[in-house]
Structure formats: C-alpha cells, structure tokens
Amino acid sequence: MSEMQEKKPRVRTEMSPDGDMIRRVREINDRAADETGVRPAAFVLTFGCQQNEADSEHIAGMCRDMGYTVTDTPEQAALIMVNTCAIREHAEKKALSIVGQYKHLKAKNPSLLIGVCGCMVAQEHRREQLKHSYPYVDFVFGTTVLHQFPALLYDKMQSGRRRFCADVADHVVPENMPVVRESGYRAWVSIMYGCNNFCSYCIVPYVRGRERSRRREEIVAEVKELVNSGYRDITLLGQNVNSYAKGSDWGYDFADLLAALDAIEGDFTLRFMTSHPKDASSHLIDVMARGKHIAHHFHLPMQSGSDAILKKMNRHYDRARYLAIVKELRERIPDITLTSDIIVGFPGESEQDFEDTLDMLRTVRFDMLYSFIYSARKGTPAAEMVQIPPEVQGARFDRLLALQNEIAAEKNIALVGQTVRVLCDGASKNDENYCSGRTDGNKIVLFHGDAKALTGQFVWVKIDRAEPFALYGELRK
User: Fold this and answer.
1) Which residues contact 202 (CB under 8 A, 6 or more apart)?
2) Angle (deg, nearest 10), helices 351-364 and 390-413
3) For residue 160, which of 98, 240, 315, 383 sits 20 to 30 Å off, Cα-Cα?
4) The domain spanning residue 158 has which CATH number?
C-alpha cells in the first residue's frame, strides 16, 4: 500500500479564492487598461475530462474577476492558462507540445504570463520538466490548489519569481468559485473531488487527492440558480459520483442528493458521471426510476470483462456483479441507455481475457463505448507490470471497435420511426446543413432546422435514419 493510500485527511477545509489577491490583480489590470485603452485578455486552454472543463470555467471566472477579458485567441492574450490532463501519455505530450509553441509568443511579448495547471503538473517529474525545459512558463499549480491561482498570479506580477506549487491538498473543498460557463444551457456542477479507489492503472488519486464532497445545501443552491437562469442540461461531476458523501456523518448519500435535486421545479435534465460499479446501489437506481428530471442514461465503466484482469486492475467487482447491476437497471428503467469505458491491452491481458471482454459486449450490448488502449502511468502499480506489445493492443482495439460499431448500429436502428426529445446544440460541427443535439439518453441526433433559433431549446425529432454514432431525423411540432 502506498503512502498516498495510507494517508487519510483529518480536516475538511472549505476554501475560496483570496478576495484580496483578486482585488490587487484587478487594480493592476485596471491601470493597464487606463494606460493602453485596451483591457488585458486571458486565454484558457483545456485538455482532458469534464472535470477539467469545469475547472477551466472557474479559472476563466477568476480571470474575469481579476479584470481580464476572456479571449479564444492566444495571440491576443496577456495571460495564457493551460489546464492539463494526466490520464494518458498522449494527453501529456500534446499539452507539452502546445506549451512549447507559446515560446515564440513570449519572445514577441516578454510581459506575457504563462501558467500551466491541472493533473499533469501534480506529478513531480512533469513539474521538474516544466521548470528546467520551459523557462518561459511563469507558474504552475495542481488541481487541488485551484483557489490559490490569484495569489500565485499576483506574486509573479509583483516579484517576477517563477512559482511551482507542488501541494496535493487532499482536504480542500472549493466553494464560492467564480465561473464563466462555456454554454448558456448546459452546465457542469462538481459535487466532489478526488478519488479513493486506487485502480492500478489510474493516476487520478495521486494528482487529485483523496475523496472530499461538497455539502448538499451548496450543490442544491447552485443547481437551483442554474435552473432559474435557464440551464436545461446539468451534469453532476466527480471521479466517482456515487461514492459522494461516503465516510461522512452527514446522513445522506448520492442517491439522496440526486432526489433533492430532482425535486427542483423546472424544465431541465439531470445527468451524472462518472460512476463506479462497486458503489452503484439499488437506492440510486430507485431514485432514477422515480425521477422527473433524471436522464435515463447510466455511464458505468466496466474496463474489462475478465475477472482476472478486473482483480489486477483493483476494481472490486466481477462480471457477475456488473451483470447484476445491468439487469436491475433494465428491469427498473426499461429505456435506459448504457455506456461504458473499456481498456484494451492491460498488462497481462491474455487472448482469453480479451475474449471475455468481447463476450461482455455481446451480453450487455452497450449503446456506446469509450474505449482506450492501455497507457502506462508513471507511479501507478500497473506501470510496473509486464506490458502487452503495442501491435497486440492495436489489433485487439480494432476488433473491439468493430464489434461495438455493429452493436451500436443495431441499437440505433431500433429507434428509427420513434419521435425523441432533443436538446439542440446548434449547427453540427461536422455538417453545417444539420442541427445537432442530444437525447435524454445522450444519443447524438442530427436534423434540419434553424440552428440559431433552436440552440438551447428542447425539440421533438422523428428518427428516419440511424448510424452507429448518430441518429438522423426531422423536426416535429
């Protein structure tokens, strides 16, 4: 057992950004705006999961309160923030490559400030790499000290010193965080932070700290405000949302929180991610089945269909337990959409182990999969295991995708002729002749319509064509 696993936070501390530091940075930016006639701009770039996206919205909120405008062009920025991911090697290399490209911007504008934050920089070797190989990076901090961003920025502005904040503050619960949301109708709401699971392949507990949950009243207040402001799709976030409040003496759990949020009046959909099968309770399924606003979609990461591999992954469930949850979900919520995560080529995965995963796909018949080739993460137990050759991983990955595409196509074809409710996201990024949106079950639907007028609105679409990754249809009144 690692030192990280043995350590238990003794104090739960609710933290907010330092208001005095925010005011001081704003005064500096106000003076700059008065002198130049142009308000300084901040650019925020995000890599990684929905939790990283939510963190970036809070970074943008703090930037706004510190007197920056928020730009989508790094060339126009006085401050560049890169929010990084550590879940796979590729994500880290891509983030470092982008940071490297900002060297020329710093050369043109020496007053430009560059900060790197997020999961990647919570790892000591990446902090050292940034410190020594990227001298134009001004400050670095991890996810658990997000609230310290204004203080780190002000210190850099005043002293000129580079700062590399190494803390993994696994007792801190951020509250009262400013936010600039990317959307006016879809919102992320973080309900907890960190993870206690220590899956053998995963870096998250080491870079995001131990589990700590926000209080129910704070979450309910935030969701009420969102609904009253016109938000129509609200997703509750956590590394393992269904272990929310676990180990506390609060007297409620995630299912109770979900029920409290479902009781809020309004026309909106509640979602949550990500869940862990070991904590998926009958109480939670009952709340979902009775809910008025809770989406009939459950993202339940399976990771592998082999009991031997699940044990090596330290997942704390087996095939039988997973199938029991699926059975209960489909009995209580017949129209449930099931999605999952699969890791292909985990260390020691035999051909039979992989066939067991394919067998689970045929048995469960997921609507959609997020599938990944295993990527070794330095500092995790799985990185020290015997690795599968890349060519074997790739071949298995292709076989998995082929099977899942076949299943997804069959599942979607069954919806042809049905009329479904869709929240419109505007014009499709892949084909501007279509509007794009998502169903209650989180399926993508493409349809003809006035994208500008329909964005953020619920519409009804009759499905007339289906593909593995999308449904096509026509608007209905």
Assistant:
1) 87, 195, 377, 380
2) 10
3) 98
4) 3.40.50.280
Note the pLDDT of residue 92.
Answer: 95
Predicted confidence band of residue 131 (pLDDT cuts 50, 70, 90): very high
- At 1 the pLDDT is 35
Domain assignment present for residue 388? The answer is yes
Give CA–CA dist 331/43, Å, rounded: 47
Its domain, for residue 129, covers: 7-172
Number of Cβ within a 10 Å radius of residue 5: 12
Asked, for residue 110, whether it belongs to a domain, the answer is yes
Q: What is the pLDDT of residue 7?
A: 43
pLDDT tens for each residue of 260-276:
999 999 999 999 999 99
- How confident is the model over 271-320, as pLDDT tens digits? 999 999 999 999 999 999 999 999 999 999 999 999 999 999 999 999 99
End-to-end CA distance of the chain: 59
Judge if 196 and 211 occupy the same domain.
yes
Residues with Cβ < 8 Å from 181, sequence gap 6 or more? Answer: 57, 187
CA nearest to 150, candidates 18, 44, 57: 18
Tell me, yes or no, whether 307 and 407 share the same domain.
Answer: yes
In 3D space, the residue among 240, 230, 299, 289 whose CA is nearest the CA of residue 262 turns out to be: 289
Taking the C-alpha atoms of residue 162 and residue 353, their distance in angstroms, rounded to an integer, is 48
Q: What is the CATH number of the domain that holds 439?
A: 2.40.50.140
Pick the last residue of a domain from 153, 172, 191.
172
Average pLDDT over residues 135-162: 95
Question: Cβ distance 344 to 375 under 8 Å?
Answer: no
Tokens of 187: 């919102």
Residue 9 in this model has a pLDDT that exceeds 70: no
Please give the Cα distance from 71 to 79 (Å, whole number).
Answer: 10
271 in helix, strand or coil?
Answer: strand
Kindly state whether residue 164 falls inside one of the protein's structural domains.
yes
Q: What is the pLDDT of residues 159-193, one digit of tens each?
A: 999 999 876 777 889 999 999 999 999 999 999 99
pLDDT in tens, 358-380: 999 999 999 999 999 999 999 99
CA nearest neighbour of 281 among 234, 233, 235, 317: 317
Per the structure block, which two tokens stand in for 141? Answer: 């901090």
